[in-house]
Structures are given as structure tokens and as C-alpha cells.
Amino acid sequence: MENSSLFHKMVAFSAAVHQTTHEWTQTVRPAALSPVQYKILEYIAVHPTATPSEINDCMHMSMPNTSRELKHLTEKHLIKKSTNTNDRRKHYIQLSDQGEKIMTEVFASIENHFLARMQNNTSEDLAKVEDAIDLLQEKIFYDKQRKRP
Prior knowledge:
The protein is mainly alpha-helical. It has a single domain, classed as Arc Repressor Mutant, subunit A (Orthogonal Bundle). 64% of the residues lie in helices and 7% in strands. The chain contains six helices and two strands. A two-stranded antiparallel ribbon has the order 1-2. A hairpin with a 7-residue loop joins strand 1 and strand 2. Helix 2 (35-46) packs across helix 4 and helix 3 packs across helix 4.
């Protein structure tokens, strides 16, 4: 397959992922949270040692806006800050107990959507999907923290 064709398939796949994610999450966001606040909580749930600058970068927000949203989430008792013991200038953002509870409920609802979508697949198909996800994670969606090219 030529690289251009592969790229276009990747763009279509990425768009489909975003659309499916939207469908699965549109009804699970707590009403007290703005869409941005929810996305920040979701990011922190997946990256439990997130820094404000990592959140800022991932959310495509300015640092003042990120700080404001983190302050709101702190006031709602959904996140907590901790300081790096070796570098007191570096802070980590983590879910509070209440934030963990909310995200556990949200992820359980999303899991139900996922399981409903997967219910008619054979165990062989499920294994192929899992292998495909692992391969995509390794080759395309690697973690920046691991500093892979």
C-alpha cells in the first residue's frame, strides 16, 4: 500500500475514533462540568501524573486558561495537586477521591457502549481487534513520555 493511501485511511480512522468517542461520551458528562473540564478529568484519569503543562498541551489551551480550569476543578474537589519532592516548582495533577468516583462511573458507562458494540463479534475477531489496538498503540499512538520518535 502506498504511503498516501495509508495516510488517508489513518485520517478516516482518526475521524471515526473521534466521532465514536463523542457518541459514547455525550450523555455521560456530569452536568456540573463544562466540556473542557470533563476532557481535563478524562485526561488526568488516563495520565495520573499529569502536569499542568501536559494538560495545557493536550487540550490546546493557553496556560492561563488551563490554570483557570484546574482552579475550578480544585474548587469542585475533583482534582488535587502534589509537588515533586526533587523539584518543588513541578506540580502533578491527580484526581481526588470524588474525581476518581465520577470518572469510574463515566468509564463504566463508556465500557457498556463498547461492550454493546462488540457483543456480536467472535472471540477470534475480538483477539484481532485487541492485536490491532496494540499495534496502533505501539506504532502510531505512542506515549510522549517514553520519548519514542
